[in-house]
Design a protein that fits this description.
Elements (H helix, E strand, L loop, with lengths): L2 H11 L9 H32 L5 H18 L1 H18 L11 H10 L10
Helix pairs in contact: 2-3, 2-4, 3-4
Length: 127
């Protein structure tokens, strides 16, 4: 293969000898990674907001608004994922909240309070 032929093949397919068009596969991987990052961030914010609401914290509204912004991005860029996940998100958020005044082992804020106070949140039968 001459140098000219080699450069023509690289230019037309994105890589030497790549006749399948793997450039599109890389784009799909980047899109999947972006979706994964958005979903992780959304989940983290939703959990934080639910815990903050459970403890009556002032930051709950700000965290919830950040969550809504991430959800809006997911809805715009990945409408099918948004449609498939929205009902599950709502169910999970309700489960993440707990009544004020009760310390629960699934709440990060409760765990911090318990650790600071020397309270064990793990029920005796679980230990």
């Amino acid at each position: 293969m001459s140098t000219t032929e080699h450069h023509e093949r690289v230019a037309s397919t994105g890589a030497p000898g790549n006749d399948r068009g793997d450039v599109f596969e890389i784009d799909a991987i980047k899109r999947r990674n972006r979706l994964d990052q958005l979903l992780f961030t959304r989940s983290h914010l939703a959990t934080m907001a639910a815990q903050q609401r459970s403890h009556g914290m002032d930051d709950a509204q700000e965290t919830f608004m950040a969550q809504c912004a991430i959800e809006s991005t997911i809805r715009e860029e990945y409408p099918q994922e948004f449609e498939d996940s929205y009902a599950h998100w709502l169910t999970t958020e309700v489960a993440d909240e707990h009544p004020p005044g009760f310390l629960t082992p699934d709440c990060g804020i409760c765990c911090s309070i318990a650790a600071y106070s020397g309270v064990n949140l793990v029920p005796p039968e679980s230990a």
